[in-house]
Write a structure and sequence with these properties.
- The chain is α+β, with helices and mostly antiparallel strands.
- It has helices at residues 17-38, 42-57, 73-76, 79-104, 106-110, 129-132, 144-155, 181-198, 223-229, and strands at residues 114-119, 122-128, 162-167, 206-212, 231-237.
- It has 2 domains: 17-57; 88-237, 60s Ribosomal Protein L30, Chain: A (2-Layer Sandwich), CATH 3.30.1330.60.
- The protein is built from 9 helices and 5 strands; from the N terminus they run αααααββααβαβαβ.
- Strands 1-2-5-3-4 form a 5-stranded mixed β-sheet.
- Helix 1 (17-38) packs antiparallel against helix 2 (42-57), helix 4 (79-104) packs antiparallel against helix 7 and helix 7 (144-155) crosses helix 8 (181-198).
Amino acid sequence: MSRRHKHEEHSNHESWAIPYGDLVTLLLAFFVVMYAISSVNEGKYRVVSDSLNAAFRGTSTVPEPIQVGERSATSLASPVVQIDSDKEARLLAMRQMAAQLESAMRPLIAQDMVDVHSGDGFVEVAIRSDLLFASGVAQLSTDAQPVIRLLGETLHEFPNDIRVEGHTDNVPIRNSQFQSNWELSAARAANVVHLLTESGVDPKRLSVLAFGEYRPVLPNATADGRNANRRVVLTVMGSEPLPGT
């Protein structure tokens, strides 16, 4: 009778590694999913979900993006940088315009009859009405016409819109021609506009505003204050507004 040898069963001391590896993998997947969900972004969630599916199943449902043509340097540039460059160019153009107007109006600026200053997107020319009109009159004086024509010759080369504002003091006026300071300020601004168009400024660029006595720059209690408030203001506007401004 043959003698059967009983083989000893060998115990596997590394069997714990398999469930441990599965546990680590599941924990990793869990934390990746939790991170993706914490960022409320549906696109990221789908990408992570599909990536996990691909890792466990070996397939991916996310199509690879296809680049059509070459990416130009312009497309890679930041739009914020482009906006900043455009704004800087416009501000430079407005400063150059202000410099030209100051040069043209220098004698009157020295006499405090004209004031030129520029801001963020505009240039303003304020002319005291003493230079332009007699008291209570809307017709431009003979001495005022060369001043307005010079302004027109300086401004006609620029494409910017121009707002012409009429202002008065608070002394009431009521006669057969003007019922109030509203009408007087409007008529004065309109007469300036007409002379600007005769000097070559495109009428499409011009608009008239009448503020009467309601936008004073100084109190009307003194003669000097009333003189300062009687004025015509040309506001040269910047070009079209920038995005986000």
